[in-house]
Specification:
heterotrimer, A mainly alpha (about 190), B mainly alpha (about 220), C alpha+beta (about 190), B: about 220 residues, mainly alpha, 8 helices, flat, C: about 190 residues, alpha+beta, five-stranded antiparallel β-sheet, two-stranded parallel sheet, 3 helices, about 25% strand, extended
């Protein structure tokens, strides 16, 4: 039960983009078309789930037993960077269509703070192994939902007459503000 | 474009022409997250500038030793090291501040401004120029955070740096402190910056045209 | 081949230098951080037990628990720091209790990351004041939107119900652990 709650809360209530402000750069950069938003969301969800597994193992079996907590930031970012590289090579070998769909987004993920934020939040909240996985999966799906919602709004926006100074990033941020307000309606549904 | 090669321009360009937030739209996450109050904004900007200056300087010194393929990985390790240093120093010397900013300090690692300057500038320029560039970018970051956090703090609680500015009893806009307020304020700020640039460009064009007509 | 060796060597050297530097920094900072924390806890002990003159740490089942005494060295009660999950993250609080653990002298929040302007009102006086002289039997209860009617009730903050509820839950959990210890005669 707690696992489902953690999952739902990281999808809707504590949405990574709209309430933790993590992963804003891809959120603004890759949200102009639904198809690319969908691919990016998939790539991020995939990497986030694996990251939550690997960083949890690194944290609990290497850093904490040897009292190396001060290496946390350095080792997490290295793990994430090599993980992304590895995932990229793996996808390239296994499935060409998938690689064509996700390929160009994978290198961008290394500097996506949602991934690093996820690793740190899991260690900060003292989540167990399974809780961490559900949190990562939920975070990724929440990120995808926000990204796809944004992309669908922006596709419609192409037809609207936006004042010139507000075009691009400014109007995107204001829409994100409205989305954040809407997502606040979920707050209070669950208490984790 | 003569001013581009001047040393002073390496510093000044970060303030407006290439302001990391308003012009390059980098480092959004900490910008939105910490600007609920002015003091948080200042502390975050100073911590980021510290990391930016030291990592840019160091990366610029060792730039010729690093093979191209492991460039990004090495930069990230250098940056992560400085970030951890900042984190520990703040926790040891300024416990109050570190409590407020706690979760965001480790995220300086993935602040695109730092990696962006390391990759885009420090890895191609000499240490002195990189230092100036980093200082300029850090100051630009500070300015943007100051503006954003002043607006948010003023409208949400009527204070700046804790001092009462608006008369007591002015309605407080709670939304400014929430994520939604952060997004909307920053969006409007971007719009204002764009408007200013557009107006200035048009004026410059008009000056050129009148010159042309007069001759 | 040469580039591969160079790659490995450079990365290794950078990582080793970084690890050495960081271990130096952390061994310098860690005692200071612990000291800050201890100092802060000590100050908070006297704030939540205003009549206390001295205190003694009690080592019991991993709790951060203190017994406090008045000027005649007579036991006044206990101080407990305890933590749990709030709306956004961890809440760590400190509570002062009388000797029989049924009345709270005062509660303070030591660490929290609740929403600024909403959830973080749990650190402000109007909310904390409600806990002074609050009964803990059978346990603390919360009411929403109306004034409390019983001596063991507090009112949750408008628009921050979850954060307020979390504080009550954390308190109840910590206090029930103390009551268990008391029953077993370990306090």
């Amino acid at each position: 039960m707690k696992l489902i709650l953690i999952f739902l809360s990281s999808v809707l209530i504590n949405n990574f983009v709209l309430s933790y402000f993590l992963g804003i750069c891809p959120f603004i950069g890759v949200s102009n078309k639904i198809s690319s938003a969908f691919s990016m969301g998939m790539a991020v969800t995939f990497v986030m789930t694996i990251t939550s597994i690997v960083t949890w193992l690194v944290n609990h079996y290497i850093l904490i037993p040897f009292h190396l907590e001060f290496l946390q930031t350095v080792s997490f970012i290295l793990v994430i960077a090599s993980l992304v590289q590895f995932v990229e090579m793996f996808i390239k070998k296994v499935s060409q269509p998938l690689y064509r769909a996700l390929g160009i987004y994978l290198p961008l993920i290394t500097t996506n703070c949602a991934i690093m934020g996820l690793a740190l939040l899991i260690s900060m909240k003292n989540y167990s192994f399974l809780e961490g996985i559900f949190f990562g999966l939920g975070g990724g799906i929440g990120f995808s939902i926000a990204l796809i919602l944004m992309a669908s709004i922006r596709e419609e926006l192409d037809l609207a007459d936006v004042p010139k100074p507000m075009q691009g990033a400014p109007i995107t941020l204001i829409i994100a503000g409205c989305l954040a307000l809407a997502f606040m309606g979920f707050a209070g549904m669950i208490n984790v | 474009m003569a001013k581009v090669n001047k040393l002073s321009y390496e510093f000044l360009k970060g303030l407006w022409d290439q302001n990391p937030i308003l012009k390059q739209i980098l480092g959004m996450c900490p910008t939105l997250a910490v600007t609920v109050s002015v003091i948080n904004g200042i502390a975050m900007a100073l911590a980021t500038t510290f990391v930016l200056v030291f990592s840019s300087f160091l990366i610029s010194i060792i730039r010729k030793l690093i093979p191209n393929q492991v460039r990004i990985a090495s930069f990230i390790v250098v940056i992560a090291t400085f970030v951890t240093v900042v984190d520990y120093v703040m926790r040891a010397l300024f416990p109050e501040m570190s409590k407020l900013l706690g979760p965001f300090i480790p995220l300086i690692v993935v602040n695109c401004i730092i990696l962006g300057r390391a990759e885009g500038f420090a890895s191609k320029n000499n240490p002195f120029r990189s230092l100036l560039d980093a200082l300029g970018m850090g100051t630009g970051f500070l300015i943007s955070l100051l503006v954003l956090s002043s607006i948010r703090e003023l409208l949400s609680s009527g204070t700046i740096l804790g001092f009462q500015i608006l008369p007591k009893g002015t309605p407080q806009l709670l939304v400014m402190i929430l994520p939604a307020g952060a997004f909307i304020t920053l969006g409007l700020l971007f719009g204002a910056a764009n408007l200013y640039t557009l107006v200035r460009e048009r004026k410059e064009k008009e000056v050129i045209i009148t010159k042309y007509i007069n001759t | 081949m040469k580039t591969i060796i160079q790659m490995v060597v450079v990365l290794t050297v950078i990582s080793i230098i970084s690890a050495i530097a960081l271990s130096e920094i952390s061994s310098w900072a860690n005692p200071k951080i612990a000291q800050n924390r201890a100092k802060e806890t000590e100050k908070a002990i006297f704030r939540v037990q205003p009549k206390a003159k001295s205190y003694k740490k009690i080592n019991q089942s991993g709790l951060e628990l203190f017994q406090v005494f008045d000027e005649n060295n007579k036991p006044l009660g206990y101080v407990l720091t305890y933590e749990g999950n709030g709306f956004q993250g961890k809440i760590r609080l400190i509570v002062g209790l009388n000797d029989s653990l049924n009345v709270i002298s005062r509660v303070e929040i030591l660490e929290q990351v609740e929403t600024p302007g909403l959830g973080n009102k749990i650190t402000e006086e109007p909310f904390l004041k409600q806990f002074e002289n609050l009964l803990t039997i059978p346990e603390i209860e919360w009411v929403k939107g109306s004034k409390p009617t019983k001596p063991n009730q507090i009112q949750t903050i408008t628009a921050a119900t979850i954060s307020s509820k979390s504080v009550v839950q954390i308190l109840n959990e910590g206090i029930s652990k103390l009551k268990d210890l008391k029953q077993k005669g370990l306090l």
